[in-house]
Amino acid sequence: MNSVNRATAIGFISIVLWGMLALLTSLTNGKIPPFQMLAMTFAIAFLLMLGNWLRQGKTGLEYTRQPVLAWLLGVGGLFGYHFLYFLAMAHAPVVEVSLISYLWPLLIVLFSALLPGEQLSKFHLIGAVLALVGCWVLIGGGSSGFSSNYLTGYLAALACAFLWSSYSVASRLVKQVPTDAVGWFCGVTAVLGLSCHLLWETTVWPADWVEWLGVIGLGLGPVGIAFFTWDYGVKHGNLQLLGVLSYAAPLISVVMLILAGKAEPTLSVLFACLAIVGGAFIAGQSKKSR
After folding, report:
1. Structure pTM?
2. Which long-range contacts (C-beta less than 8 Å, at least 24 apart) are formed by 108-111?
């Protein structure tokens, strides 16, 4: 396996972990305020990286000396995305917010063509659109249609898509910044999340060990390891293919909920599976055609 394929595989770990987001969130019973959850989970992510530094005999302070652009991208991407997502969820129905915000994988494919040495092939574009259709079929089952009453939420969700795709693609411009620095970005995001929580929310602690398991699981996986592996993947892997593969996250999420007995298998899930896997397969043909 060459270095690009290896980095792409590492990036795909993030997509699998993001697929666990719904199941782990369900363990918390949705009682914890969003910014409190943001602060708690990103604090766990920071502690996870801190443990890695201490294991290596380091303090991690050496990773704070990064270009201003890297700090703006890191903190802006992690905190900015979640801030806009929570704003969207507060002003529009969850299904429509999910449909709009999940434009980010397609935007990654499109924006990546702007990077030096990258080019957009028809296979990437066809694969991304096919996977997007599958994703929308999967998520859109409960949609009651778009309404102008929720315009603020829709715009915030669209901003989410542009922000996360821009963060992912622009990370390639600071590929020399080590993934360890993301630990500090997570730490700052936790502090900002705590600040928003103290300003606007009432603290609600997990009620039992199951809810704590959900919070810790989120901090270690979808919020912790996932952002570290994503950073490495988008900096060193096949960015276009990762963009298409990202549509597997909601599919993995639904499959895990089905296996856990929290959702029912349907024809829409089967169609979404075929569309997303087919889209990834088509996108994967790009290099073979060159």
Report:
1. 0.92
2. 108/165, 108/168, 108/169, 108/239, 108/240, 108/242, 108/243, 108/246, 109/240, 109/243, 109/244, 109/283, 111/165, 111/166, 111/169
